[in-house]
Sequence to fold (303 residues):
Amino acid sequence: MDAVRLVEVGARDGLQNEALTLAPQSRVQLLEMLADAGLRTLEAGAFVSPRWVPQMAGSDQVLKALPIRPGVTWTALVPNLKGLEAAIASGCCEVAVFAAASEAFSQNNLNCSIEQSLRQYQQVLVRAREAGVRVRGYVSCVMGCPFSGPVTPQAVAAVSASLFAMGCYEISLGDTLGKGTPAATKSLIDACRQVVPVSALAGHFHDTYGMAIANIHAALQAGVRVFDSSVAGLGGCPYSPGATGNVATEELLYLLDGLGMSHGVDLHGVIAAGEFISAQLGRPTASRVARALLAQRASGTMA
Ligand code: HMG
Ligand code: MG
Fold:
């Protein structure tokens, strides 16, 4: 059966955008529940400036508390060598670096130009190789930038090619704004697969305009087999009207089941993790699949 690999980013991309900062203990419990459900690659935190992203403070405590589990990779975001050293000291065997396809976003997110970020990442990759740490690469703003507007597929392909050439084993294409459409997704993948093998591309779709599942379907048709998602659709910012999180892991699993594609994840286990984290955050789940199945369960009609 055609297989898809999921990268669970709820405990990082999701929680970094929530108004409430959760204690490391709650983040560890969430991650363990998600691994119990069968997720095998899980972003557990970010070694970034706590002044820039206070929600990710204590990522060292999260990573140190997570047990070694066969087949499970706990990863973390690093913006520079300082972040990489902290990740290594916390026991990370894999990290992710994050560049952007838009200059304005790079300045706002990393306080440097695209070129400066790529130079820093070159050093990160050299040190990571020495330490035996695998590195994944993100490219943000692949469908547009919140500060400067349109971004061309060629601009995304250029940054993807640089990250891949320096040794990132996979390039995750981030629709940060969640504004893309299936046709734009196809053009994006067509451009990127000219410079990075499609087997090394991943899709990272935020769901702001409700297009994430449609975009994932388009990316699947274009040959992509790795997708990032967040349990309960975590993310979005209450101070930024309209902003939403990543595609919900529950929605992605429901889509893959409907397509008959294997993924190795137990949907009900993910829903349980989503209930746990939504209670911690004091808000309902953003996953419509979870809401539907929980309502059916409550009314006794679930098979
Ligand atoms: P800066 O202010 O330019 O850094 O920030 P600096 O080098 O001038 O240092 C300033 C202070 O930060 C110093 O401390 C450094 O030690 C400290 P001070 O001397 O003032 O006490 N510092 C650090 N602290 C902890 N960890 C570090 C680190 N590096 C320096 N690694 C910096 C530059 C990169 C640090 C900052 O811009 C930053 O942390 N940015 C991260 C922003 C972020 O995390 N954004 C969200 C993740 S990206 C994302 O969500 C997109 C994605 O999901 C894909 C998509 O959807 O598109 C991946
Ligand atoms: Mg993201």
